[in-house]
Design goal:
The structure is a homotrimer. Chain A is of the alpha/beta class. The first copy, chain A, is built from 12 helices and 9 strands. In chain A, strands 7-6-5-8-9 form a 5-stranded parallel β-sheet. A 4-stranded parallel β-sheet of chain A has the order 2-1-3-4, sandwiched between helices. In chain A, α4 links the parallel β3 and β4. Chains in contact: A-B, A-C, B-C. Chains A and C meet through α2 and α12 of A and β2 and α3 of C.
């Protein structure tokens, strides 16, 4: 049997990721996790290559995580800061991206408040036959593939620390709780988790968890369920993914109050008793303590994987940049 | 015959650049272009040296280009961000510059909205006998030497890719079209192109292309002409340099409208028929598509050198930093 | 006698620094100053380690100085920019810090407008048994230890360039002049200078130099004096440390005017005649020329150590990061 190989130039969305691609990412991230456990946490894999971070939407953790991943692969990095940019001078986003490619960028990590911008840039770069890989670091409410991949890696590493692989999730019950509608993280998680054969249960208020999400489960290896109360989603769950609640949802009359949201959907120790005894809780951060999750629960290493997610993020992003940069697995 | 040597500590302006200096820059940039075509695009030339980018005026492309040039020479870089700076605390610009020198800066790349600031800093540094090189990355409406040098390198590389040299331009006709008055790029281009022996034709509305520019052609190897319509400048031109039009020029009543400007001075396929058949078009970027240049023309690799200019920019800035940093040619 | 060893994980405050610790810092900084005098100013000491600069309050010089110190030790660096951060999304400062630790940060340099933030973060990190060192880069009006250590190193290097050590200051008279009340630099300087056995004289207007500061001298090797006029502090002084005057102090009615402040407390050539003939003047920067210090005096290398302070800053911060990072002395 042939060794699996990575052929994807861009990572824009997980909707068409194959099981083999998930496993290549998990396996590569696993070897980088080993590198990150050493004192000297660098490898020369991407030396002389250039990673440009184009973050049109502000971010601390994702930008830092990608920047660090690139540096630990010995790549050079450039950060694009929209506030001090030519965008205020009327340049189009495509022209900005082309400028970075013309400078010699090998991989471009793009975050934008509008869905589809990374895809549009990738299509234009392919049309121009530019040798650049585009990585979607979050586009509007569409997708955030590296976040879902780090969630997947974190979960699989709990199930088998030495050999994280997609099929470990088969038959596991995973709840995704909160503002599904506005969450690019939820969309990417739904693609990866239903691909694994897990049972995925979405739960949120009807305004934030509309029926149309059920369609995302069609023809996927794992089934997808929707709930407008949290309890059926938590019942016997192996993992609970909580989502960030944007405070502006209240102003949009999608929510009565943060306090009521917490009472109905907040993850607390009491609610976790519905789950499997060894349930683990994830959150993509940044967390509104006491809203999506009880503050003490967030800090409890018995249940919370939030810190491991951040650590996994560097390894997973190293894996993505490495694979896109032509690294051998 | 002795090998030419680089003796200039600062690069502030092109008005007194010698033919030998232009040729050293072109030749050095040419060898760095070869480095940039490799997979590992770095050389250890400036390892351990420090390049500080002091951009008092916002910029994407120029700051990134210099930062990348420094990194590809293995220098360390520091970026000064005015928004988060001591300037808000009342420190003078000279004191800010002195602080960076006292930290050990070897080369300082300075952009400022006021003409003369890089010169003033360079003079003060020389007076203090500080071992630092100052590179003007654009000062007000005065000069932008690295942009003009990358334009020169781009043009000469079209004429002879293997041996870009100043005398290739002798007798060529080059049009510079647009807002000459407010353009530091135009001023630097006029110095470099008239030094080469090219025929330089300026064209723009009378409000943006005043007669006094004719004086810049006095006693230069190549002649300088002024036009208030675009056609005579384009007639049989080998190269057309279009300039960015600042939208605020309309509010200042220097222009009736962007649409009228495009009708009278915009570069279109129809207008290019006046030029030599193999004419090439340059633009320093960022471009207002459909104002200075027709959008489809900008993207046509048969005519547009805009992408090559960006690529050349890294090689030319590597050359400047390398030469200023004491690199051997 | 055993070689002294560095055991401090965090550098938060100087109030409990031992003489041995001061001497280790001075001696380590001295060897890094030698490194910084070479053409290749880098050492591989912290290769593969990560230094995160979390500057919740804007700063040019301190952030650049720490970033450069880290780079010259070959560490990787991440800069946290509050304007583009998750703080606007409601994340707590402790959670931001934990995120950087989870990413693999080895040393965290923190500046915050509120006193006590670096300490709070350090305590939480210790509670979590995180292997990270916290360095206070200025917290409110509390402390700025690296500034006081670079002042100490600058002063000791004047007294003995080859062997800067704490006991060189014994019996020396040092004046600290200006807005003592609001100055974190003054507080840290008081701890280091009274530890050395120097005579420390504070001088400032009563509103900015309240009696309670006298308590900081209790049980310290060197005595502490307070004055509401500048002359007794300057009389026979060996060193004068001037402090930055925040212009907002006038709006708070703590000062009549900058002009009157300069007349009463500004350091001028005339006033320096009261001091020892070889007196030297320090200022932490950025300077309000003509307010705290006469403009020409600031630039006079016979008296001013301001430029040396900046240079010392890089060596001292390299020493702190190196020692905290487990480097051998």
């Amino acid at each position: 049997m042939a060794t699996p190989t990575w052929t994807r130039r861009h990572v824009l969305s997980l909707d068409d990721f194959s099981a083999e691609e998930y496993n290549i990412v998990l396996q590569t991230a696993s070897s980088f996790r080993e590198v990150l456990s050493r004192r000297l946490k660098k490898v020369p894999a991407l030396q002389g290559l250039l990673v440009a971070n184009l973050f049109f939407e502000p971010s601390t953790r994702t930008r830092s995580s990608f920047e660090l991943a690139a540096k630990r692969l010995s790549a050079d990095t450039l950060n694009f800061a929209p506030a001090t940019s030519s965008l205020t001078k009327g340049e189009t986003i495509l022209d900005t991206a082309k400028t970075y490619v013309a400078m010699g960028t090998d991989m471009m990590v793009i975050r934008h408040q509008q869905a589809g911008v990374p895809q549009a840039i990738a299509m234009e770069m392919d049309r121009l036959e530019a040798r650049v890989g585009i990585l979607n670091a979050g586009d509007g409410q569409h997708e955030h593939p590296s976040q879902a991949l780090l969630d997947l890696f974190t979960i699989c590493s709990i199930l088998d620390p030495d050999r994280p692989a997609l099929d470990l999730l088969k038959g596991k019950k995973i709840a995704i709780v909160g503002d599904i509608l506005h969450s690019r993280v939820a969309r990417s998680n739904i693609w990866s988790l239903t691909a694994s054969g897990a049972q995925v249960h979405l739960a949120g208020p009807p305004t934030l968890c509309p029926m149309l999400f059920a369609e995302m489960g069609a023809d996927r290896p794992g089934p997808l369920f929707l709930h407008w109360t949290v309890e059926p989603a938590l019942q016997d769950a192996d993992f609970v993914i909580t989502l960030r609640l944007q405070k502006e949802r209240m102003e949009q009359n999608l929510l009565p109050s943060l306090r009521e949201y917490h009472q109905l959907f907040g993850i607390t120790r009491a609610r976790l008793k519905l789950c499997k005894p060894d349930v683990k809780v994830l959150h993509p951060g940044p967390v509104n303590r006491g809203v999506e999750i009880a503050s003490d629960l967030m800090d409890d290493p018995e249940f919370s994987l939030i810190s491991q997610q951040v650590t996994s993020g560097v390894a997973v992003r190293m894996a993505l940049l490495y694979l896109m940069g032509g690294g051998k697995i």
